[in-house]
């Protein structure tokens, strides 16, 4: 059975790295479900969070080892959902004429709010897991969704181990 | 007379690696290469690399530049050079088509863990991404087939990037790296002093050379417990220069040792513990007994599908020790009971005191028993035919005897490659250079002159099929111009022989586009100023080989061989190794 896996990759911030990483997925014909990249707490280090489906844990381990081989990659970790705290963000655009109903719906939801409103459009923000966002989507649908966007997943592991273990502070100063 | 004390003073004042006047990027490129001890470059000039060529003009006394006839030839020549010297091979090419022509060779080097530093010119940084003349996204094109790549757009970056490139190419599991340099970075003057520091450490790249002790101990325990252990020797042993350690290991443990295609010559073909070659066209015993072993040890090899056949039916009764420097190879194809990550030399050194001395005559005798069967059904006829046309096997056998097993055989891809691997008796390390993982036709001619440049004292013999030869035959021009005494044997059957063999065996003899109408190879060689000779009869073979070997210059010997010869034994594609066929 296919399961979701999340891979967190810590890399030096250099050009062309996304190409090398995505190439490993392409060669194995794996579709990336979501991808997010950002700077970490350490200067010059980026964090990739990649979510994809696989029917075997073993295949995921092979991908992790192949990504580790990329020269600029500092560390790679593969996770299943229970290992992680994770979330996404979604925006929904609606016609302002449906604002009243949509706003009423918001009251029953946690971490959902109006982000923007004018005479024409209403933009609602919803944070949550993929599942929560899609269930919210279904509820909101009758009010006419003009446009919808989801961020990639961001995730932190539940383990107390942090990046500090792999990146000595002497070599990688904090950003802030 | 030199004053030693003043020398020391000078050294202190001006370090050898620094230059007071600002250098152009191009000169910094050449100086960086010199700092890395580069003595040979294989290249081809063009618009976007011209400033580097202009700088090179002034360093001709320090660097030997070999002008190839096609950039693919430069890449393969650099591979041949790297494989025989253990140093990175250097290629220089222009942007666009110059760079894309390198790609086949880079891919080949990636598959066979060969260190290359490829330097390509690129359009001005201001023109990047605009489809400028001869612009190609070389970094993008080569990303999947390079160990590392970098685009330099600023002359100041040159020393640091080159130092990194050389370190990455030739450390850990070696591989090709590519440096793309925009033209502005070549022509600009550096804003700071040229200072070169060799790279010894990259924080995000830490190849493990020394194995973990507990991994070594577990491996040693499995070896000591095993009744029928079986050692697979791969390219990693040659790369690590661990031939002596390997010999000591097999002599102490008496474990039968077989080589992969790229592992050939890591142990002498005459060594009592050497049992032959693994793989689709390896020996009968070496394949057949994989499923009899209770322990297999993969040493610096990667369980390629041409070695394993059907993975599910491979080494079914055996525990597996997998020794490799690349952690991503562990469990990739064959699950390992005892993985050992490390350099082959370091691992063997660590294992040696822990393994017990054993006699394994009975186990070894099982190999010898099956060898008799292979000899009767295949080898006898291949090496000592009583009639008919010349066979590839007998050519290789005679060549092996006449060169005392000490030549470097550079084989192309196909039947002749397998026959050369099977019948040359390797007595000296780095004796077999071929394209293994990629199977790149056209590899041998350029790789052979690359090897000859790297090891001028060694007899280098290229063994090439008529099909392969026509893929890179323009490199005869390079051999001529550079006066490289490369010996070339074309084993001509007027067929793409290996494809024809498969069509015969698996496609009911439907010979679909495999017959070649060949040119007169001797006339072609003569056109390139290279002497040659064609033979068709067995009686001529000995004297023709003598002429080839005794020639002080390059020589091309074309031998017309049996048209529909098949290479046996053979493990049909995807079949279990134990299904190996003798006919």
Automatic annotation (TrEMBL), chain A:
The ACT domain, residue ranges: 6-81
Assembly behavior: Dimer of large and small chains.
Organism from which the protein derives: Anseongella ginsenosidimutans
EC id: 2.2.1.6
Top-level EC class: transferase
Entry keyword Amino-acid biosynthesis: yes
GO cellular component entries: cytosol
PROSITE patterns in the record: ACT
Extent of the signal sequence: none
UniProt-recorded Gene Ontology molecular function terms: acetolactate synthase activity; acetolactate synthase regulator activity
Family to which this protein belongs: Belongs to the acetolactate synthase small subunit family.
Entry-linked CDD domains: ACT_AHAS
Keyword line: Amino-acid biosynthesis, Branched-chain amino acid biosynthesis, Transferase
Domain of life (superkingdom): Bacteria
Listed NCBIfam families: acolac_sm (TIGR00119), PRK11895.1 (NF008864)
Name of the protein: Acetolactate synthase small subunit
GO biological process: isoleucine biosynthetic process; L-valine biosynthetic process
Pathway annotation from the record: Amino-acid biosynthesis; L-valine biosynthesis; L-valine from pyruvate: step 1/4; Amino-acid biosynthesis; L-isoleucine biosynthesis; L-isoleucine from 2-oxobutanoate: step 1/4
Reaction(s) catalysed by this chain's protein: 2 pyruvate + H(+) = (2S)-2-acetolactate + CO2
From TrEMBL, chain B:
Cofactor requirements of the protein: Mg(2+); thiamine diphosphate
GO cellular component: acetolactate synthase complex
InterPro entries: Acetolactate_synth_lsu (IPR012846), AHAS_TPP (IPR039368), DHS-like_NAD/FAD-binding_dom (IPR029035), THDP-binding (IPR029061), Thiamin_PyroP_enz_cen_dom (IPR012000), Thiamin_PyroP_enz_TPP-bd_dom (IPR012001), TPP-bd_CS (IPR000399), TPP_enz (IPR045229)
Keywords: Amino-acid biosynthesis, Branched-chain amino acid biosynthesis, Magnesium, Metal-binding, Thiamine pyrophosphate, Transferase
Domain of life, per lineage: Bacteria
Domain Thiamine pyrophosphate enzyme N-terminal TPP-binding: 24-139
Cofactor note: Binds 1 Mg(2+) ion per subunit. Binds 1 thiamine pyrophosphate per subunit.
Reactions catalysed, as given in the entry: 2 pyruvate + H(+) = (2S)-2-acetolactate + CO2
Residue ranges of domain Thiamine pyrophosphate enzyme central in the record: 217-351
Pathway: Amino-acid biosynthesis; L-isoleucine biosynthesis; L-isoleucine from 2-oxobutanoate: step 1/4; Amino-acid biosynthesis; L-valine biosynthesis; L-valine from pyruvate: step 1/4
Residues covered by the Thiamine pyrophosphate enzyme TPP-binding domain: 412-559
EC number of this enzyme: 2.2.1.6
Matching Pfam families: TPP_enzyme_C, TPP_enzyme_M, TPP_enzyme_N
Protein's UniProt keywords contain Transferase: yes
Metal-binding as UniProt keyword: yes
GO biological process per UniProt: isoleucine biosynthetic process; L-valine biosynthetic process
MF term (GO), any: magnesium ion binding
Family: Belongs to the TPP enzyme family.
Name under which the protein is recorded: Acetolactate synthase
The organism of origin for this protein: Anseongella ginsenosidimutans
